[in-house]
């Protein structure tokens, strides 16, 4: 549903959201052609992307248990990291998977700038080495001494502590990101910092976009008062 492009048309003091530009305003019936510049149709950015076409990114997608695979704000999510070819490395109960499909609709957070050539050249090597560590081997977890409920992962520059309660896909992804930051001599990010700055805002946009698409599909249009929206923006509430 939300793979469609959403368009916003402003007319008769209303914002009209739809999947196509109507010839006539669905509210007043007047022709939309020849409208003022400020009323021209605007394409609403789609917050989703094909994870297999976004290399060197952190990805978020609905968990496989989510039958409809939708971002609705109430379902479990799954995370992963892409290599330079769009293969998604993600940690599951069976270990690290390398998915070449299944992440065609997700949220992506770019992790490497285009001009960071040295890091780009070493990205796959870093990701493969990190994912091959014993820490992510289910057999290693099962064979540990029962009194050893935690373990260190150590690189040349940084150490992280893991235990059973935090040994999941999100920690796998964030731990790799922090290892990369260490190679760049940058400070690591806490889970809260990364979530609040990079993940949560994108998830909120995705949930709103999904809801908007559902509303449009019901009646072809979703209409709100333009003056109300502008007054809310003026008050800093929009």
UniProtKB/TrEMBL annotation:
<dbReference type="InterPro" id="IPR032016">
    <property type="entry name" value="MKRN2OS-like"/>
</dbReference>
<feature type="domain" description="MKRN2 opposite strand protein-like N-terminal">
    <location>
        <begin position="4"/>
        <end position="30"/>
    </location>
</feature>
<feature type="domain" description="MKRN2 opposite strand protein-like C-terminal">
    <location>
        <begin position="162"/>
        <end position="216"/>
    </location>
</feature>
<protein>
    <recommendedName>
        <fullName>MKRN2 opposite strand, tandem duplicate 2</fullName>
    </recommendedName>
</protein>
<dbReference type="Pfam" id="PF16044">
    <property type="entry name" value="DUF4796_C"/>
</dbReference>
<dbReference type="Pfam" id="PF22795">
    <property type="entry name" value="DUF4796_N"/>
</dbReference>
<dbReference type="InterPro" id="IPR053921">
    <property type="entry name" value="MKRN2OS-like_C"/>
</dbReference>
<dbReference type="InterPro" id="IPR053922">
    <property type="entry name" value="MKRN2OS-like_N"/>
</dbReference>
<feature type="domain" description="MKRN2 opposite strand protein-like C-terminal">
    <location>
        <begin position="41"/>
        <end position="140"/>
    </location>
</feature>
